[in-house]
Structure formats: C-alpha cells, structure tokens
Amino acid sequence: MKALKLMAAALAFVGATAQAATNQEIINHVSYNVILATYNDLASQAANLNAAVNTLAANPTEANLAKAQDAWRATRIPWESSEAFLFGPVDSLGIDPLLDTWPLNILDLDSVLKSNRAITTDFVRALGTNLQGFHTIEYLLFGDGKSANTKPASALTAKQFEYLKATTALLAENTAYLANSWSKNYDPENPSAPGYVQVISAPGFDNPFYSSDRAVMEEFVQGMMGILDEVANGKMSDPMGADINSANMALVESPFSWNSLNDFTNNIRSVYSIYTGHYRSTKGPGVKALVERVDAALAARVEGEILNCMQLIQAIRPAGGGDFGQAIFTHDGRARAQKAIDALNALHATMENEVLPTLDM
Amino acid sequence: MKRLLLAIFALSSIANAQEPTSSSTTTAPTTEIQAPVSAPTTTSIEEEDEDDESREAAVSTSTTNGNVEKAYPKFEFTSYGYIVFGQRETFKTVQNLTPITRREMDLAEIAFEGEYILSDSSKIEFEIEIEHGGVGTVVEFDPFEEFGEFEQEIEKGGEVVLPELYYKKTWKKTNTALKVGKFPLFIALGSVQTKPHMYASILASDLEARMIPLNWTETGVQVEQKFSDFTARLGVVSGLNSEFFRTYNWIGGGYQRHFETTNADDLATLASIEWGSVAKGKGFALSYYAGNTTGNRYKVDKLKEDAEVTLWTLMGGYKFGGFGFSGEVIEGTLENSNLVSAANATLGGLAKPKAFAPLGHKARLESLQIYYDFASIRLTPFLKWEHVNTFEEVEGNINKNPRYDVTRNSGGLMWFFDQGAFLKAQYATEVTELDGLPETYQANIAFGFDIDSFK
C-alpha cells in the first residue's frame, strides 16, 4: 500500500510538471524524442547485431555466440518498444512484415537451407517475409525453445552461418531504411518528400495526412489501443488456447530465445512512452498532458494501469525457469497470464471509453 | 498493339461489307427461358458456345419459317447455381504439421446469363454472378500470418460481379464474328467450360486458381473466324497488373478487379485455334496469351522493367461412346519475375504481400480427367489428376518453393437426378513437394441446378 501511495504521488508530480504542455509541444516531443529516437536506436542496434553475427561466423566460439544472442535481445528492445506507433512508413513501406513476421516458417526455411543456392542478402530478400527478420535470426541463434533457449556454437552449420549473415545484414538495411524514412524521406518515389517526423509534427490544412493536431493525437491513441489489443488478445490469448490441453507453443512469439515476456513488456512500454513522453532518459510531455487538462485523476490512473500491466506481464515468468511458452502449460502460469490479459483489456477499455473522448474536450 | 487493333477492325469491316442488312420485326420484346430446341431448318453459323449455338438456331429457325415472327430486340436468359458442403484438412499455422479438420458450407455461386438479341446476327450478352452469398465485404482468416489474423477484405468484383458484358456481331457468309466488351478468355478449361453440366467435377479445374485468374474474363475486342471444323480467334484485351502477383496464385491476383476501373496502359494479345468444341468436351485448342504488366501498376516508380506474361495452353477432350476424357497443359512465363517480386515486397497497406512476394519465372499446370457417362441415368463418375508448379523455373535470387509444387488426385461423380438439378460429389487428396508437409484430403458435395442442361 505504501508503495502504491508513493507511486501515486510520483505520478501526480510528473503530471503536474507536464500539465502546461500544449498539443503542439506534445506532438513535437513524442514525434522527435520518442518515435524517431526509437527508430534510430533500432537501426543502431541492428547494425550491432549484424557485426556480432559476422564476428560469430568468423570465430564461432561460445563467447561470440553469447554476444550475438545478447545483440539480438538488445535489438528486440527498441523494435518491440515501437509497436504502439506502427503507423507511417513502417506500414506504408511494408517494413513491419520484413522485420517481424511470425510464426517463423520453419519447414520452408529448412527447405531453403537444404538447397544448393548461395545464400546472400539479395537471396534472403527475395524469400518470403516469414523467412527473414527477427524470428529467423532467433531460430538460428537460440535453442529449440522447448527445453532450452540456447545451444552450443558447434551446432551451427556453415549454411546457417551464411543465412545468419545474410538475414542480419538485411535486418540492418531495413531498419536503417525505416529510420531514414522518419528522418529524411518517407516516400522513396518522391525524393522531395520530407522525413515522416516532419509530416506528423506539423499538422495543418496543407498536411497530406494530418489536417489538425487532433488527428495526430488520435493516431497516437489508436496506436496505443492497437498494441494493447494485440498483446492481450493475440500474442497472449492465442497461444493459451481454450484450456491447458489446447495451448499451442507454435503460436508463441519469440519462443526460441524465451524473450516473449520481455517482448510483451516492451510492447506496453511503447504505450507508456507515447502516453507519458518518457523514452529512456528523455522525459515528457506525452498524451497524458492532454488528458490532464480534462481530468487529472484519469491521467494518473491510466499511467498507473500501464505500469501495472507491465508488472503483471513480468509476473507470468515461471519461478523454475522458462518463459511465456512454458508458463501457458501450467495452471498457475495460465492464471497469471489471464490476470495480465484482463488488465490489458481493461486498459484498452479505459483508452477507448475515457482517453479517446478527451481529444474532443 | 495499335496495328493489331486496326487489323481486327479492318477484318470485321470487310466482313461487314459482305453482309446484307437484315430486317427485324417490331413486336414487343419477350423474356423466355430457353426450351429444348429441335434441329434448325436453316443453315446457321456454328458458335463456339453451346448455348450460343442453340439460341442462334432458334432465332434463325423462327425468322426463316416466317410463321412465328420473333421480335427484336428479344431478351433471353439462363441460369445456374450451386451450394457446396465440404470437409477438408488444413493447418493451424505454417509450423503445424498435424492437420486439423474443417467443415464448411458455401453458397458458392449463382449466375444469371442474359442476352439481348438485337437482330439475327447481333446480340448483347451479359452475366451476373453472385458468389458466396453476395456480400461486398468479408472478413477473412489468414492462418499463415502472425498468430492468425482476421482481415477485412473488400471483395469488389469477387462477390457480386458482372464478369461478361459484350456485343457480338456475326457475319454468316464468311463465318466471322466480332466480340466487343468483356468476355471470357479462351485460355483455360475454367474459362471455357463455364457451366456445371459441362464437367463432372465440382470445378472445371481445381488448381487453375493457383496459377492464373479463375473464370478469367477481360475487356477488349476479339475476331473469330471459322474454317470448316476449326475456329480461330484473335483479340486484344485488358492486361494484368503485376503489383498483385502473389506466391500462392502466381499471376492470378493480377486480374484487375480490386479497383473500380482497369488500368489499360498495357494490353494483352490473345490468340487461339480450336478444332471441334472444347466447351462441349469434343474438341482441342491451342491458345496463346501475351501481355506486359508493368504499365498497369499503380505505384509507377517501383518497377521500370517489363514484366510480360506469356501463356501457352493446349486443352480439350473427346468422347468415345460413354467414355470420355478432358485435360489441359498450361505453360506460363513471367519476365523479370525476381524484379517483380522485389518491387512487390515493399508495398504497403492492403496491397502488402507479407510472405507472398516471391514469384516463379516459369509455371506449369497439367490436368487429365477421365469419365464414363451413363447417359440413360445421367450419372457420370470420373477420376482426375492435376499438377501445378508455379516455381518450375526461377530467376535471380528467387528460391524454388516446393510448397507450391502441388499434385491433386480426385474422384467422384455427377448425377443429374432431375432435368436441371444435379448432385456432384468429389473426394480429393493433395500433396506438395515440401518435405514434412503431410498429404491432406478434401471431400465436397455440391448441389445445384443448371438451366442449360435442358438442352
């Protein structure tokens, strides 16, 4: 109880400091210091991952495998922390499926690895999106995910190294392309088109996508609602099935690395970033500042709900080891997961029924 | 292309000059269902379509007898439709190897074909199809994306569609005909054998839809010329849009029905020579289709290179007493398939191909159906073998995907238990060349009617 009181006090303080922000200040801050910053981090981490994989391929030691695995996890953080804003170039340029299609098509990947084709970046580019991106790299770098989330470096074949190098290079290329689309040019068919950050941060009659600051705010809120729904009713509910007997490991995201719960948490962290304007060491204002102008209590309650959801997701982790893919096969793990799902759906309802209407007040 | 169009019009003009202007009576138009027709008493042009032939015969009989003057314009229509009950095996996701069984019911199609007969040598023909109950928007479930996504699909043209609307002029002296409008392409059994009584299985071809547009019709102009038992066709029609070519149906998605209008920057040429009548199951045909598809893309700067589609088809069948067979071989080439794949891979929004951008350079389909017609009880059992591989050859960085090398074997029967009503049953097994993916089955029963079967 004491902790909750302290949290409420902290939230009230943060709210008070952000209260004075105008809509334009909120939009500017979120666009540049949250969204663009996230995509720049993503491109940077993906380049590190590519370098780590190249080092591993040149010198396949256990230490280098561990570094490559860590680099994969580090790259995963900004990507999953971007899922509350899957609008703009990540959608219009079709980049999302290039990075993060799942489940991985293991059958087809094995078929490709058996072929005699030389595996290059262009070759992987021409394959389906469920044969490239994060989960292909994850499948090759980690264990089977059922009993272990790692494997010995000696288990990697020459062909798998070829594939790893090609697909991580492609991931670095695609994330750089995404960062560039936000910072410099959102439409490759129109070289004079600015970065999308300039479009979204300058709503108005002459803006082709956002005619008012309300339109941008709605984009932000709808983005948060979209990922809340996906985490609760897709990423978590679908693998759980109707009961423990119908739980399906094949539907779990990031099952090989046991990174699912971190993925989900970072998904909700992206909601927190848009809502509060906090990203890494950068502070607000976010959508919360707008809500505060209408209902300060609601603004604080929503932030509390977001933090609570992140805690409930982390609490799903089995005490004896493993991740979401293991928890859904135990009764108590399922109960904890259901509690998180209920909280996420409640937060979604709050966003839809209480936060969204404040845009018109 | 312009020269070809000019040639077609010149040919039709020459034929037109030979034809005396026919007169018609002026009584009120009538609507009637085509009844069985006795043998014509006059010489009339042989039409490629079974229904066309009967109607032309009916018209020429009535006008030359002079006893019963038929009114022009006159309206006639026919119809067919069917419902399918099925059970099939499918997979939850791309990772699952254990099939699950799914049962389905589908009000698959009801079609109305109408003809405004303008004179004894000209008519306007149209067809309205209502598919799957006839709604414009559907929610589809895609098990192969993410965790299984529900997606809203706008099925404009696929749900309530006007697949045919054309003017047809015939010149009997020279056995020439001209079609202008939207008409079926004489390129595959699925587009030629258009009514359920023409084939024993539930669809004329089960695998055509994995390679080319199903029931393919396009807008254009076509000249048809008969020589004895042969019919030659030459046409220019609207082309495909390579933006919508996808792994799971090769060039099939390029059929421009997604938008209200059809981009016509690239047209296609269609040619064929037919002996007998493929539609009736007694004839053979060699067909050719060629057309560039790059100009019809909406995103004009994503692909600059040509992407011509070329198709060769040999199709037909014959009947010896009660025993008959039919089949087809379709060979297709997509120029610069690797470049098309790369350009499509980064489309956004509803055009996003997700995992389905890679395309084969050459594709091939073969099918053979054998059947025996117990005419006295109108029962036709059949066996059918079909194979399609849309990654027969690949270009550049595209990898052959054995998942799309499919063989399908089926057997079943068609029974016309009433004059115009039928029951079809079909059991099929399907296997791909992808290691580890087990064989699946599909069992369907179709119940429907076909007014054309009264002939």
From TrEMBL, chain A:
Residue span(s) of domain Imelysin-like: 35-350
Keyword Signal: yes
Any one GO cellular component localisation term in the record: cell envelope
Main location: other
InterPro entries referenced in this protein's UniProt entry, alphabetically: Imelysin-like, Imelysin-like_IrpA, Imelysin_sf
Cleaved signal peptide residues: 1-20
Superkingdom of source: Bacteria
Pfam families: Peptidase_M75 (PF09375)
Compartment annotation: Cell envelope
Keyword terms, alphabetized: Signal
Protein name (record): Iron-regulated protein A
Protein source organism: Bdellovibrio bacteriovorus
Upper taxonomic lineage: Bacteria, Pseudomonadati, Bdellovibrionota, Bdellovibrionia, Bdellovibrionales
From TrEMBL, chain B:
Record key words, sorted: Signal
Listed SUPFAM superfamilies: Porins
Compositionally biased intervals (Low complexity): 18-36
Protein name: Porin
Regions of compositional bias (Acidic residues) in chain numbering: 45-54
Signal sequence segment: 1-17
Organism annotation: Bdellovibrio bacteriovorus
Region: Disordered, residue numbers: 18-65
Domain of life: Bacteria
